[in-house]
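Morning - DLL inputs below, output right after.
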Amino acid sequence: MIWQPEFETLPRDELEALQLFNLKRTVRRVYQNVPFYRKKMDDMGVKPEDIRTLEDVRHLPFTTKDDLRENYPYGLFAIPMDEVVRVHSSSGTTGKPTVVGYSKKDLETWSNLTARVLAAGGLKKNDVVQISFGYGLFTGGFGLHYGAERLGATVIPVSSGNTHRQVLVMRDYGTTALICTPSYALHVAEVIEEMGVNPRDLKLRLGMFGAEPWTEAMRKEIEDRLGIDATDNYGLSEIIGPGVSGECIEAKHGLHIFEDHFLPEIIDPATGEPLPMGEMGELVITTLTKEALPLLRYRTRDITKLFLEECPCRRTFVKMEKPQGRTDDMLIVRGVNIFPSQVEEVLLSIKDTAPHFQLVVDRKGYLDTLEVWVETSEDFFFDSMRKQKELVDTITQKISEVLGISVKVKLVEPHTIERTTGKAKRVVDRRELK
Ligand code: DLL
């Protein structure tokens, strides 16, 4: 099903005319209302009137996560706070996450966009949807919740965690569609087997997964073990949350970007130069309709490519390949974004540790684990076991608090963490995306 066929199947020329109209409007709006953008554009000598074609987007300034942090919390908002009806936030470095805002109309748009994702993944009005993304500041839970409701499905807002209960809910409430991260879906499959629940007692038929990278092999495994059709969807808080792009169940090949709301570009991450269609590079997005937090050329740091192909689903939107990597050191562990610099800041605040550490990410079964290996200072290492345990406890508590997920801390002897001549190797990622 296509949720908004009047937009999703627009002929390309009409779509581009709509994009240009909204691009001009967005540029005018940020120039007038957001001092940050006015200054950036003035410095570059660009005026809103200079935007005459879609290609002119390349004359506009980029926006980065750091820009959002520097203007924390509300500095880039383009409407007065009394028109902001919701905020969400994404993890960032210590103390300064990225805060994003929505107007009433933005929430309306967002519900339609996540309804599009779900409809593209095969969801129908008579489905029972179990939303196992976290509800709260993270955009996953609420974002997809409103889309599922908008579509008219029955929503179970179970949120994340307690897998045993998730399985019971799934069986007893007759869940037909599961919404979470792909790694969690595999974990759910595992727990279903452990609990001895007969898959035939479940009504599950669909899964819409996102918020982290996954592969075709993982899709196949999820589909086989849960007996469902699984589709991928992508988004990021800064742009809106989930609802930026989604796969259609007909092709399961590339994620249609909702181009009537987002103008995508692919750039060379090193030079910032735009790359032609089909080349791999960093995805950059300009929002076309956002009111509270419109962003010009937001650098997602996600690596992908764009391609246009006639799709059996009839959508005319450009597709992006499943994103597989990032240009920065951000890690996604159990769906939570983590920067090594967050750990560094914590360690720097604790006595007796050396500023040498490594994050070791692995996968036990289907769940990500995060170990933090920390070197102690020379004089500390030979101290008592009791003192070592105290130190481990302090570090564990502080890091878990800052990252928002549980970690295991291991103390290692001074000078055991590999030193490199260039960039420190802060991350050892042993997860194999099969
Ligand atoms: O993860 C929004 C979301 C929620 C998307 C639920 C889909 C479903 P953030 O926490 O801001 O927002 O993280 C955004 O996660 O820049 C990518 O690196 C990564 N990411 C999101 N979806 C995918 C995906 C949400 N389908 C960051 N494949 C993005 C690969 C993804 N990576």
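Note: Residues 90, 133, 139-140, 210-213, 232-237, 241-242, 300, 302, 322-323, 326, 332, 337 surround DLL (CB under 6 Å).

O.
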